[in-house]
Structure formats: C-alpha cells, structure tokens
C-alpha cells in the first residue's frame, strides 16, 4: 500500500508541474490520428474501388492492361506499407527525401511529414478493408442494378458502397485506435506527441514509471471513448430494429400490397367498395360496358 500511495503522490506531482505538456501532447496525438485516419480512409476507398473494377474478355486490350497495371501497383503499395514497421516508414520518408535529393527537397513542416506517413500507412490497411467490404456484398445486387440500367459508377455509389462502408465501419474504428497508439513512433522524426512528452519529462526528472502510468491512463481514456462513439455511429447506421412500410410511395399504395388501418384494401371486406354503394357502382359499370348486368344473364 505504501508503494501505491507513493505512486499516486508522484503522479500528482508530475501533473501539478507538467499537466499542460501532457495535455498538449495528447492534443497533438488526437489531431494527427483523426486527420491521418480520415485521409487514409479516402486513400483506401480509392484503392479499394480501383482494385474491384470488373473487366471481361470482351473488353479492349488497353482497358484490361490499364486495370491490371493499377491492381499491380496497388498490390505493391499495400504489401510494402503493411509489411514494414511505421517507424521505419517514417525514417525512409522523412530522412530519405533529402538523402536522395542532396537536400534539395525536404519537409519544412513536421506536421505535414507526420500526417503523410500515418495517412499512407493507414491507406494501405484500409485498401484491403474496402476491397473486402465490396466483395462481401451479394453479387445479385450488382446484377439487379445492371438489370435496371445502372452503370458501374451508379451501382457502386448507390448500391454497393453504402453497404460496404457499413460493413467496414468496425475496421475504420480499429484503424483510428491503432493510429492513436502508433503515433508514438513519430518521435523518431522529432514530432512532439503524447509519448514524446513522456520521454521529455522523464529525461528531466527520471520518474519513468509514474509518467508511464499517466501515459497509459491517457491512451486508455482516449481509446475507450473512441470505441463508445464508434459503436454509437454503427448503431445509428443500422437504423431501427423494425421498419414500417412507406405509405407515401405510389407503388406501395397499389392493391394487394397496402392495407389502410381504417379502410383496408379494395379487396377487403372493410373497404367501402364492398359496401352497398360500392356494389351499385360495380353493377352500373358492368351494365355500361356489357349492356346487361350479371343478374340478367
């Protein structure tokens, strides 16, 4: 118990002196994670769509070659950035650019470099998630869309993508949570985020474990909050558990598909058409069209 009391006391001392630094570091981490995840999702969406454009034997050789080339380039991009650590990607991009250009080109902003690195890494993971989400949709829906005259673009935007995006929402949230934690490797290019603040503070007072405890609690609070928000978004996208028949569409008002709670359908005994006045109208119509009523036959 004495050690726990000492830990709480040390944490209080650190927060009393460095709380602004911790808060600033957490803010940088959140901004980087949110922006990079959003850009990475766009990159993954584009790559996933390009990777699933269909082609047939009847298509021109130029179209087939172009689509195969795109798929090969996307595959190389995905495999390289999924198969290497982000910390090495940061080194290669941030320090490799001036190395190969003899310092003619370099990053003037550490923010731009960090967002670019994390976005490209996220895009590689999202590309496969989007591709999986697209091919998970029943092919019959694509065939149905084509049957009513939709082209590939209309099918993707109106039929496939809305369902695919819902299917990959958990993966988007997972990538965001990963980015919150993995931004800690950006200290390698001198980006000051939450973990870099911890390293700086420990270098000043050597209180490693109390500072690490603050870091752990901070990361956990952010990731748990993000998980709750993302689950709420998923439930929102799912809609209501029970659906009501749309009563404003003319198609749903046709006989046999719609039952008014008060009037029923034209073929229901509750309908006014089956009352005495309704029967008179039907007999009158038969007389006018056939010249005689059924009773007279």
Jot down its keywords:
MetI-like fold, flat, disordered C terminus, about 300 residues, mainly alpha
CATH architecture of the largest domain: Orthogonal Bundle
Characterize the biggest β-sheet. none
Cα gyration radius (Å):
31 Å
Number of strands: 0
Low-confidence stretches: 255-260, 263-271, 292-297
User: For this structure, what is the CATH homologous superfamily of the largest domain?
Assistant: MetI-like
Number of structural units classed as domains: 2
Distance between the termini: 104 Å
Shape: flat
CATH topology of the largest domain: MetI-like fold
Report the CATH C-level class of the largest domain: Mainly Alpha
Topology pattern, helix = H, strand = E:
HHHHHHHHHH
Query: How many alpha or pi helices?
Result: 10
| Residue share in helix | over 70%
Overall pLDDT confidence:
82
Based on secondary structure, the structural category is mainly alpha
Walkthrough of the structure:
The N and C termini lie far apart (104 Å). The protein has two domains: 216 residues, Orthogonal Bundle (MetI-like fold); 47 residues, no CATH class. The chain is an all-alpha fold and 297 residues long. It is 71% helix and 0% strand. Helix 1 packs across helix 4 and helix 1 packs across helix 9.
List the helices and strands and how they pair.
Elements: H1 2-51, H2 61-82, H3 86-100, H4 110-135, H5 139-147, H6 152-167, H7 169-182, H8 194-205, H9 208-238, H10 276-290
Transmembrane segments: 30-53, 74-97, 109-127, 176-196, 216-233
Membrane topology: Multi-pass membrane protein
Protein name: Amino acid ABC transporter permease
